[in-house]
């Protein structure tokens, strides 16, 4: 699956990058950029959450030696449109995402899905972002709006997905995103 020059039997139609963002501090929101640079095994160059081990403050307190499975945060732009219909006003970078995508069902992808972004970058999805209480400080009620239940009553987390960088490269607004599914059986993403 690392050979991206030949078609994968597990590839699906592509989406696009709508926006990219980073922040060198631990602010809740990230600053929109025209491009970001992904570093293999680390994350987004210049972003507070880049590194081999966990960088999210709550996780560092528990065990700073944990591997960083949250190097890159991705959110689908359609979520912002869904939330706008509920009265929330969200712009790119607002909920801390590094990459805002369009036309990708990020939440429905299995663990281990790889996204080839732009010319060189390759990330692997590790799990779902768990909506935190900071969302309510940003806009009251936002945390609950990012939680839902399926028809069987199972919790659905809609705050985006987390990934690790497999191959570094530049990611630009407007880049194509190619989805490379892992071989079956697929595992549903859990919170990380």
UniProtKB/TrEMBL annotation:
GO terms for molecular function: catalytic activity; molybdenum ion binding; pyridoxal phosphate binding. PROSITE patterns: MOSC. Signal peptide: none annotated. Residues 31-180 form the MOSC domain. PANTHER family: METAL-SULFUR CLUSTER BIOSYNTHESIS PROTEINS YUAD-RELATED, MOSC DOMAIN-CONTAINING PROTEIN. This is Molybdenum cofactor biosysynthesis protein. It comes from Magnetovibrio blakemorei.
């Amino acid at each position: 699956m690392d050979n991206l020059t030949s078609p994968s039997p597990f590839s699906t139609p592509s989406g696009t990058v709508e926006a990219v963002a980073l922040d060198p501090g631990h602010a809740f929101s990230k600053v929109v950029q025209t491009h970001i640079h992904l570093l293999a095994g680390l994350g987004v160059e210049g972003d507070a959450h880049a590194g081999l081990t966990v960088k999210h403050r709550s996780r560092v307190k528990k065990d700073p030696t944990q591997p960083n499975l949250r190097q890159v945060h991705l959110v689908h732009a359609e979520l912002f449109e869904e939330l706008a219909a509920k009265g929330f006003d969200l712009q790119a970078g607002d909920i801390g995402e590094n990459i805002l995508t369009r036309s990708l069902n990020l939440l429905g992808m299995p663990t281990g899905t790889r996204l080839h972004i732009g010319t060189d970058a390759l990330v692997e999805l590790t799990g779902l972002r768990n909506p935190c209480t900071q969302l309510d400080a940003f806009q009251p009620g936002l945390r609950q709006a990012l939680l839902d239940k399926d028809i069987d009553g199972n919790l659905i987390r809609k705050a985006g997905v987390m990934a690790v960088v497999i191959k570094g490269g530049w990611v630009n607004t407007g880049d194509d995103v190619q989805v490379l599914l892992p071989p079956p059986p697929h595992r549903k993403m859990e919170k990380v």
